Amino acid sequence: MFTQTTQIRVRYGETDQMGYLYYGNYALYYEVGRAEAIRTLGFTYAELEKQGIIMPVAELNSKYLRPAYYDDLITVKTILKELPVDHKIRFHSELYNEKGELLNIGVTTLVFLHADTRLRYGMPPVLMERLAPFFEKSPQ
């Protein structure tokens, strides 16, 4: 399993009239978590795009458990529970407040496509190479 965390402070412009982090902005927080997770592997989305690979979102699910508020420091935990074996990759996201309370759970499925043809592309070799060690079974 691969796990990475990053922190984001809720900005005033991201809140709604109730003072909550606006529900549509949770997807942006998932995106920050995914981008930072990929960065910790030693490359970026931009580098994949230069190689002619794009990763559009195919599915997004979000469960709101309790609100985040303006100026809260949110920890975004991004998890890959399984190593992708085809053209899809599924990121699990968990958002926590400073008290460690779980606020939100999200699952985002992205697909690998050739940028030119928009046809499916298998798991990029560089991504497989970097992720594989996190999924190797330890000897018992």
TrEMBL record:
Domain of life per record: Bacteria
GO molecular function, one term: fatty acyl-CoA hydrolase activity
The keyword Cell division is assigned to this record: no
Listed InterPro entries: 4-hydroxybenzoyl-CoA_TE, HotDog_dom_sf, YbgC/YbaW
Gene3D superfamilies linked: Hotdog Thioesterase (3.10.129.10)
Enzyme Commission (EC) number: 3.1.2.-
SUPFAM superfamilies with a match to the protein in the record: Thioesterase/thiol ester dehydrase-isomerase
CDD domains: 4HBT (cd00586)
Alphabetical UniProt keywords: Hydrolase
Keyword Hydrolase: yes
UniProt cross-references to PANTHER family, sorted A to Z: 4-HYDROXYBENZOYL-COA THIOESTERASE FAMILY MEMBER, NOVEL THIOESTERASE SUPERFAMILY DOMAIN AND SAPOSIN A-TYPE DOMAIN CONTAINING PROTEIN (0610012H03RIK)
Family in the record: Belongs to the 4-hydroxybenzoyl-CoA thioesterase family.
Name assigned to this protein: YbgC/FadM family acyl-CoA thioesterase
Organism, as annotated: Chitinophaga tropicalis
